[in-house]
Amino acid sequence: MSPSNPPSAATGTLSLEQQICYAMHTTVRAFDAVYRELLSEHGLSYPQYIALMAVGEHGPLTVSRLGEHLRLDSGTLSPLLKRMEAAGLVERVRDPEDERRVLVSATAAGRARLAGLGDLPHQIAVRSGLSRQELLDLHRTLRQVTERLDTGV
Questions:
Q1: pLDDT tens digits for 19-48?
Q2: For the domain with range 41-117, which CATH number is right: 3.30.70.260, 1.10.150.110, 1.10.10.10, 2.40.50.140?
Q3: What CA–CA distance (Å, rounded) separates 93 from 61?
Q4: Which of 53, 89, 91, 116 is a plausible cystine mate for 84, CB 3.0–4.6 Å?
């Protein structure tokens, strides 16, 4: 058997289709496509949407805290926030209690944009084809997996 023609792994544990990481990857890509389609009508990307949701929900956040919420590093988050600020969706100001920190908050225009997206979770649920209970179960399972992976349990 030549190295260019190894035994088929299709039935073994190295089969791509059997990998949970691949199933997660393809699911995320499918969700990205749906979000891209639905959010483009509102002039938002998915990262902008979740950033706007986070500051809308939690009030002013430091850039580092926002990065923790979104699991984005500062090299990714800073340009994202710069574009959002230029679009009038968020504002960044120095924290009066600690000038080294920058606080990010939603502007009135950002809050209005979020309000206009109120039906988005329902549209995503419908597009997924899952029942409400299936979505709740999936959400719970994904949070458990994330927590376990983060803690190494």
A1: 999 999 999 999 999 999 999 999 999 999
A2: 1.10.10.10
A3: 10
A4: 89
